[in-house]
Amino acid sequence: MRPSSTYRVQVRPDFPLKATAELADYLADLGVSHLYSAPLLTAAPGSQHGYDVVDHTQVSPDLGGPDGLRALSAALKNAGLGLVVDIVPNHAGVAVPKVNPTWWEVLKHGRESKFASFYDIDWSRGRILLPVLADDPDALDQLQVEGDELVYYDKRYPIAEGTGGGSPREVHDRQHYELVNWTRGDSEINYRRFFAITELAGLRVEDPEVFEATHAEILRWVREGLVDGIRVDHPDGLRDPGDYLRRLRDAAPEAWLVIEKILEPGEQLPRWPIDGTTGYDAMAEVNGVFVDAGTEAFFDTLDHYLTGGTTSFQNLVHETKRTVATKLLAAELGRLSRLVPEIEAAPQGLAELAACFPVYRSYLPGGARYLAQARAEAGRRRPQLISTLDQLTARLRNPAEEVAARFQQFTGAVMAKGVEDTAFYRWTRFAARNEVGNDPLKFGVSVDEFHECAESRQQDWPATMTALSTHDTKRGEDVRARLAVLSEVPGDWTEVVRRWVRVAPLPDPSLAHLIWQVAVGAWPIDRDRLFAYAVKAARESAVVTTWYQPDEAFETALRAMVDKIYDDPALHREVTDFAASITPPGWVNSLGQKLVQLTMPGVPDVYQGTELWDYSLVDPDNRRPVDFAARRELLGRLDDGWQPPVDDTGAAKLLVVSRTLRLLRQRPELFTSYRPVFAEGRVGEHVLAFDRGGVVVVATRLPVGLSRHGGWHDTTLSLDGHSWTEVFTNASYGGDRLAVAELLHTYPVALLVKE
Question: Record's CDD domains (predicted)?
Fold first, then answer.
């Protein structure tokens, strides 16, 4: 059953399946058709996210086990709801070997293990390298033997039969694995990882036996009607995503199937047997259309003033991607290079091609043109490598070549770590657009561009997911909506931030600009939350301090900067006053982008808690507990007829979300087409409107500019002479032309249903 909408819940040990089941009546009242849950299979002990699955055969006992899933399914069905689950085919958790029975067996028996084919291990490199030891040449002296296990502090590893005699080091040297210094992971590890995380080992789901073993439980849920839809995590890490998705579709022909695929602007999703993506492409379009694209030059000037930087975003991305390819993913680069030993400069050439690759990956034979683009750009940047590049591309364009298959897996990791997790924290001219699935150089999206994208989605992928927030977004949707207001007040922002960086200086000016934007975007924000964000941003950017080598002096300066915001009365008042000035227009943007996302072509997802204002930051901040009791109470008041103002309670957003979701669920026939609607009048460009085939959606854009014009004046919408009911106010309208000032008198958005 295709959902009308979904609601994402971060099911985890402190919010297990029982607590999730208790949301069923609230979600039904809210108007969604399906609950969309985080991964449910058994994950590593204490996992707060579930993407480190250790046992594919059962629902996690920490979440409530199989009984918990059955109870959740029953509660949802009683409320008329379905269930969509997140699955993780690319990797498994190996941080605690004892709890992962397949990994334990591989460590114990090596290549002879019946599970040796489960994991993507380069056996030609000898023993499995486990980078877990302290950075101490005598670390192995801390090993102990306890029964048939080798113990290193709190870590335990199996001892193969017949290898247990002698000292702990002698026992260690006989095993199928080798414990090594943790710093050797990025350069020497010999199993494929999820990005650069050694605790997540790559699975070989291209092997039918591995596919069956890792999907049997999930597919049973589908067959038994416990689950209606599947969200596939990180398919780009797989050897052949297209083949995998065809097998998954064959195994679950009726399921709604979406994938976490990040499309670069202009990139087309391959025509796989799926319903679409998880919506980052839609997010980029929706956020962008509420940005004033005409002020880009102001932000270029400000960024240059603050940072003194002259590097373009393209050059920065090339630098960060190449660093990731050659350092963070050096082991993977080495494995690729060994597949083409006859090409002397293969490591340099492969790294350069990956750094120049314009999208996450190709799907040979599809997407070969991206390899050609990478080859051209790599040749321009490194002409001395042209001969090597030509030799490599001849191999990399051939789907039958092992190096071609692995290079496709490599480029996605290089892109994700180099751009999302590094460049986005260094290129900080306008943080509202530094988001997964978006190109920060695309400062804004025009109304015409938005309509063109929406029409294409309606035609090509009408059942794809759309989203505004996920557990992977860098900033919550309402933070981005408020930051979009900065594009309308570049002079005001320039004035205050130039003063603030002098009052509370930081050695890294680019990072400082990011922190100031986040502060006003999420204000009022708890000091510890802002500092936690600042530390994460600093370490991700890896300019001064890093996760591997924290710079204590720099992080002390970072603490001093954040403390100054709260402890300096004049500065604190200025930040508070400026945030207050952009908050009301931020609310206008929030309501507009939410209504647009919920009603544009696709299946909208509501991330947990975002039915009210939500000023969450990057993970783990966006996984904080949600106050569902407050949301229930407010929804009850709305259903009793309360007409909320647009204020800091967020009830106006809850009104928009609930009424729109209910209409989507109850009247799907009203959302079957897409036609742009254009306003007429002197400020018509401040209207974003479209007709879905019986419903007309109207949103205000660029509210500061609108107020400078003195309001809507003579702006009108042409409707077809029918009578219409506005959903949020229950007002009726008729005639051929509708005055926008009248329509948007109560709220800055409207949802018109043809009577």
Answer: AmyAc_MTSase
Distance CA 181, CA 190 (A): 14
Residues in Cβ contact with 696 at an 8 Å cutoff, skipping those fewer than 6 apart: 677, 689, 690, 717, 719, 724, 750, 751, 752, 754
Instruction: Give the pLDDT of residue 309.
Output: 81
- List the beta bridge partners of residue 677: 689
Output the pLDDT for position 385: 98
365 preceded by a cis bond (ω within 30 of 0) = yes
Strand residue runs (E) in 233-371 = 256-259, 276-277
User: H helices within 31-120, ranges in order?
Assistant: 65-78, 101-109
Structural domain tally of the chain?
3
Q: How far is CA 227 from the centre of its chain?
A: 23
- DSSP assignment, residue 474? S
592: nearest Cα among 309, 289, 175: 289
Decide the pairing of beta strands 256-259 and 276-277: parallel
pLDDT at residue 669 in the model: 97
- Helices 313-323, 346-356: axis angle to 10 degrees equals 140
Can you give the pLDDT at residue 735?
A: 80
Question: What is the residue type of 345?
Answer: A
421 in the same domain as 303: yes
Look up residue 449 and give its amino acid: E
Q: Which domain holds residue 373?
A: 299-433
Which of 12, 7, 31 has the alpha carbon at shortest distance from 660? 31
- Contacts of residue 497, defined as CB under 8 A and 6 or more positions apart, other chains included, come to 302, 306, 513, 516
Q: Which of 517, 522, 505, 369 is closest to 440 using CA atoms?
A: 517
* Beta bridge mates, 197: 194
Of 371, 401, 433, the one marking the end of a domain is 433
Residue with tokens 């180099």: 418
> How far apart are alpha carbons 308 and 509 in whole angstroms?
9
The tokens for 160 are 């193969």
pLDDT score of 585: 98
* DSSP per residue, 239-250: S-HHHHHHHHHH
The contacts of residue 691 (CB under 8 Å, 6+ apart) are 673, 674, 675, 676, 677, 697
Query: Does one domain contain both 197 and 236?
Result: no
pLDDT at 192 (0 to 100): 97
- Using a 10 angstrom Cβ sphere, with 0-12 exposed, 13-18 middle and 19 or more buried, the burial of residue 365 is exposed
Single pTM value for the model: 0.97
pLDDT at 398 (0 to 100):
97
Residues (pLDDT < 70) of the chain are none
In what order do the strands lie in the sheet containing 34-37? 276-277, 256-259, 229-232, 82-87, 34-37, 6-9, 603-607, 465-466
Q: What phi, psi does 58 have (nearest 5°)?
A: -155, 155
DSSP 8-state class, residue 137: T
**Residue 374 in contact with residue 358, Cβ under 8 Å?**
yes
State whether 53 and 149 are in the same domain.
Answer: no
Q: 323, 417 in Cβ contact below 8 A? A: no
Instruction: Assess whether 170 and 218 both reside in one domain.
Output: no
Residue 227 and residue 131 share a domain: no
The closest of 697, 696, 737, 747 to 717, measured between CA atoms, is 737
